[in-house]
Amino acid sequence: MKIKQVFRITAVSAAIVAMGMATGCRPQTSGSQSVGDAASRVYVAPGEHDEFYNIVSGGFNGQISVVGLPSGRVLKIVPVFSAHPENGYGFSEESKPMLNTSHGYVPWDDLHHIAISTTNGEHDARWAFANGNNTPRIARLNLNTFETEEIIEIPNSAGNHSSPFITENTEYVIAGTRFSVPIGTDEDNDVSIDTYKKNFRGTVSFIKVGNQGDMSLAFQLVTPGVNFDLSRAGKGKSHGWFFFSTYNTEQAHTLLEVNASQRDKDFIMAVNWKKAEEYIKAGEGNLVKARYAHNKLDHNTHTASSTMMEEVLQLDPKLLKDIIYFIPCPKSPHGTDVDPTGEYIVGSGKLAALIPVFSFTKLMKAIEDKDFEGEYDGHPIIRYESALHGVVDKPGLGPLHTEFDGRGNAYTSMFVSSEIVKWDIETLEVLDRTPTFYSIGHLSIPGGPTAKPHGKYMVAYNKITKDRYLPTGPELAHSAQLFDISGDKMQLLLDFPTIGEPHYAEAFPATLIKDKQVKIYRIEDNNHPYVTKGAGNARVERDGNKVHVYMTSIRSHFAPDNIEGVKVGDDVYFHVTNLEQDWDVPHGFAIKGANTAEILIMPGATQTLKWTPDRPGIFPFYCTDFCSALHQEMSGYLRVSPANSTVALKSSLGE
Ligand code: K7E
Ligand code: CUA
């Protein structure tokens, strides 16, 4: 969530702002209590490796950072929804299709949440999924290559914030809408905003995940026009169900900070997705027209392709009964979390003074007994008390997100009172609390959302940094804090700055993937249409005003390294194949005046930089990645002649 919204003063939020100022932004203690043996517990000696991989969302940078825990060291930035000049993602011809959407090329998004793949509810860490909020998309990263392999756009959605969430066996990744919008044809959608209640709808999308990770949009449920927020799949006994938090059940379309906070309770929407599957098997649902891009990287050609999809299967749970139930939940819930057993469902109402915990067993009984207290937009509302296990009383202010340690404890982040509260899932008793510096959003325990948390550590992702680090002008790095949660009391071990604005993160033991890492791509397997296998095949070819440069790179030269006969106005394609078959030897390629980024080519791969020279002259090109003692020598010249020139096209190396 964005702090600016919470801190804007209105009648409704003034009191909360006051509380936030008093307790959130200016905690009494400095928090510098982390001394002594804490230092040794986060110390990873030179040459040693971290115990956990932490996959951290970058928020408004549209990327993911990979951080080692407990050290907090940044290991890699993986570009996902944002073009990345560092390696040419979104600039190279091969990667541009990955950022294609029904709106065309969209090289930025706002990435908030991570979902690591699971089997039987436990991390298998084959893939990481992440959401793009602004132009609704879900991405899949391969955790053996740390590359974005696939992006699927979500039609009939706006503000894909409630996303992505994973079911127990990675059957689906699931995405809900933040902004309800009209969901008809483009022409139908041109309606007055004040017809919100009549025309605006939410959707929740179920994206099937295949054995190789491949995503396809299986179906969408059309829902009332509420705003969905953070959500979780059931697991164990609640497998087959899904729990969405909702706010703005008032269905306001203006001044939401007041108008969406009227009701005492919003809802958790419980979805029986197995029931939805039954309906689909029985032939229910409507295929409706929808335009959305599905982009995939092919490792054989090192090239992404984009396919425009045309329809989606929609189910209307108003007609198809027993899919959707609403559970009242105070007040504007931001997160719904399910404990490792699948029995307890925790609602975190960001404006509520308590944390309600629902029981799946009681919920099922209430449904069986039709223990309802009316309807919301045609869907049954379950009686609050009937589904309630109990409440955590006075936990703190502004509960947002809850994670679990697998030892019967829950940990909830409190944005307004700027603290983490530890409580017992059964007894609901508060066991411990610790301040965070400052204004925590998400917290993350390794395996925290799974059936088998790895426990040990917890990371707080804080929205406000203030005085934690050396100041860097108006904008400060966001701040994470690592806690030891192995004992009864949470203990602060480390502060570390982060990349972008992290929201959610997931961590898992390094042993799950560290020995499976891809080190090179086999050159024999490279089926790129413009691959050059061996420097002897390097050449230049003209096709009208297109010039294809079949180029190789190996320590420490490009072949060819002298090129003549290119003319102003030509489109020059440098197809660079890195012939290296050694780990950790990429080569880069850049040429003077190119209106794009470099390309960084992994061992055995081919990447293409397109360049349209705008003037005659001599243009040097060079390798950008320090690859050997003769890296500075890894360079070449390209001559550009006027458009009407008769200079013959030729290339050479060593002549
Ligand atoms: Cu709470 Cu976007 Cu997950 Cu941020 S959201 S904190
Ligand atoms: Cu290749 Cu530097």
Automatic annotation (TrEMBL):
Presence of keyword Metal-binding: yes
Record CDD domains: N2OR_C
A Pfam family recorded for this sequence: nos_propeller
Transmembrane segments: none
Recorded GO MF terms: copper ion binding
Main location: other
Keywords: Copper, Metal-binding
InterPro entries: Copper_CuA, Cupredoxin, N2O_reductase_N, N2OR_C, Nitrous_oxide_Rdtase_Sec-dep, Nos_propeller, NosZ/Cyto_c_oxidase_sub2, WD40/YVTN_repeat-like_dom_sf
One GO cellular component term: cell envelope
Localization per record: Cell envelope
Keyword Ribosomal protein: no
Protein name, as recorded: Nitrous oxide reductase
Species name: Anditalea andensis
